[in-house]
Write a structure and sequence with these properties.
Layout lengths: L3 H14 L5 H13 L16 H15 L4 H5 L1 E4 L2 E4 L9 H11 L7 E6 L5 H10 L3 E8 L2 H13 L7 E4 L10 E6 L4 E2 L19 E3 L4 H10 L3 E10 L5 H11 L1 E8 L5 E8 L2
Helix pairs in contact: 1-2, 2-3, 5-6, 8-9
Amino acid sequence: MATILDTLKKGTEYLEKYEVEDARLNMEHLIAHVLKIDRMQLYLDFDRPIPETALESLRQLTKLRSKGEPLQHILGCVEFCDLEFKSDPRALVPRPETEEMVSLLLSHDWPKKLSLLDIGCGSGVIGLSLVHYLGDRIERAVLSDISSEALALAAENAESLGLTDRVELVESDLLENITGHFDLIAANLPYIPSAEETSLSREVQRDPGQALYGGEVGTEIINRFLSDSIEHTDPGSVVAIEYGIGQHEDLRVLAEDLGYFPAEIKADLSGIERFLFAVKSA
């Protein structure tokens, strides 16, 4: 009977053949998922035999991964800001850069009470993480998306985190159906130019196209969002946006032209200019 170590080695070689990044880490997650144990437990049980029924299930999942199915979809979950979220094809798989934006927002000096709007919320990772960690300081939290399927996933994640009663879910094309003003509007909107579709990884291409492509230039949806957001902010309100490589200067200029000053550009941990933090002028 094959052991965990044998299976890990063979599975890693198989995924490497199909050019899966971090093949060994992927196999560790798949084996732990099938065996229903913590991934780190694998290193304590390398000689543990894997039953044939579990091996058969593992083979099927490994084949899916080799064909580009995102690991998060196979596992059905993703860790984001030390919280577990359900993940499936209804919404974008959260990226590490988005976690960085949330960390920056959590470190901001917010008022004792604030209202939050997460536009294009997808699975809800930004808004729900902020509500979870800021707690009672959030007096109103609205999560919005144009996709009813994404909103359904966000609702499931809100329930699993015990936050259902703390958030409002609104189906809306950007701010079309949004009412009120907010101290913070956070957004991870589509920003990939439509011409770049074929250059994306197999995994990213499994995400909903509606969550990826922002138009011919890439920033058309973000531009519209920034223009509309001015009607839902007060002096001192913050708009935080994640965007693509090389898009920072045009977005900064637009934000300042609209009345956001300062409009600060922040880099991710790789040094890439990735986030716009714009404050509504008085």
